[in-house]
Amino acid sequence: MLQFFLVSSYFFGSEDLGGFSDILSFFRPLMLLVIVLSMVVLTEELTQTYDALIGVTKLIVSCVFLYSLLEVFFFDIFSSLMFLFYRMEDKVNIDGISVSFFTLPYYGAYILCMLLPLTFSNYALTKNKAALFYIFACFGSIVLTQSKMGVFLSFGVLFIYAFLSSSFNKKIIVIIISLLFFGILGYFLVDFVSYLNKEVGGNFARTLHLILTNTEQAHNLNERLEDITGTYSKIIEHNPYVGVGLGKGQTIEIWIGTILYRYGFPGLILFILYFLFIGMAATLKLGRLKHGRPKEAELAKTVAIWAFTIFISQLSGFMMEMSKAAVFSMMMLALSARILFGCQLSAFNQNINFSSMKQYVKEDRRNNYCQD
């Protein structure tokens, strides 16, 4: 559908293709679909997929945490080595901030917030004290990015995970604690941020203090608001039902502006409804997976949290279709397809499989999976 909306933006919008690179961007939804379908095939066995994801999460979180410590506290010593790994032309502008392997701090924060529920589930299933290290490392890496979105979202991820993992009576307690926490945080936020800005410093405290105390001078906030209003004006001026074009060369960051520009109002509505559906459906599926299939239940929690928080995680930029963040996002889409439509996908795989032995095994697995 997004590819259809993008084609409509090209034919009925006001922006033309500029070159060969624009053609690749024009077919980006189709290329991302290929990645999703490939990952759907790779994630056929959800239990094995969970084990593999936990292993990958441990490796990524450990490497990012170690690299972040070196990048923030020992950059003068290891700067030449870091420049050898990849170019960092703008590192001077974000000195003291961890970007690790993700080019920009909010890209790293988004990916780490995506992996954070997996670190929680690792500890919940193993009760291993060593698993606490990965939770700490993931939280620490998010803090070192100094991404405002990442820091606040990490607390949201924690409370949503606790809510989904609790019994009905405990859910009420989690809600009360969450409201108290965010209420107290909101009440003392200005004083706390002022203290951090004065005593600790750093990009997080400085920019957040500016937003809270002098909104007119908060350029990032104003630019994101202008992204929405400017894109809205362009769409209404030309055609309210389609987007403007690819948006290459445009400095649109917030997800609402990007989707409006590229896919129009139908694309925006589809995006919102689709992720609300994924979040609700994965939450409902969780109730049937808790008994007997704990690893699949943890994957359902991870998908639900990712879907519910996507509207916040993309405030700094529409990262889910860009660079490394796109790979992680497409993995989450593949997992959502497996969790919500595993029976249908298994049946489809069986129909196109020409090995009788594999057909028998797949049918047996599908029957076991679908019997609930």
- Overall number of domains: 2
Overall structural class, as computed from helix and strand content, comes to: mainly alpha
Chain oligomer state:
single chain
Distance between the termini: 31 Å
Low-confidence stretches: 354-362
Helix content: over 70%
Which whole number gives the mean pLDDT? 79
Large-scale geometry: globular
Strand element count: 0
The radius of gyration is: 22 Å
N-to-C order of helices and strands: HHHHHHHHHHHHHHH
The biggest sheet, with number of strands, parallel, antiparallel or mixed sense and barrel status, is: none
Number of helices: 15
Beta strand %:
under 5%
Feature tags:
2 domains; single chain; 372 residues; 15 helices; mainly alpha
SSE map:
Elements (H helix, E strand, L loop, with lengths): L1 H11 L7 H7 L1 H15 L3 H28 L1 H11 L19 H22 L3 H16 L2 H18 L2 H32 L3 H11 L5 H20 L16 H35 L4 H20 L9 H29 L4 H15 L2
Helix pairs in contact: 1-12, 3-14, 4-5, 4-6, 4-7, 4-13, 6-7, 6-8, 6-13, 8-9, 8-13, 9-10, 11-12, 12-13, 13-14, 14-15
Account of the protein in words:
By secondary structure, the protein is an all-alpha fold. It has two domains: 201 residues, no CATH class; 122 residues, no CATH class. 78% of the residues lie in helices and 0% in strands. Helix 3 crosses helix 14, helix 11 packs across helix 12 and helix 14 crosses helix 15. The radius of gyration is 22 Å and the shape is globular. The relative contact order is 0.13. Keywords: Membrane, Transmembrane, Transmembrane helix.
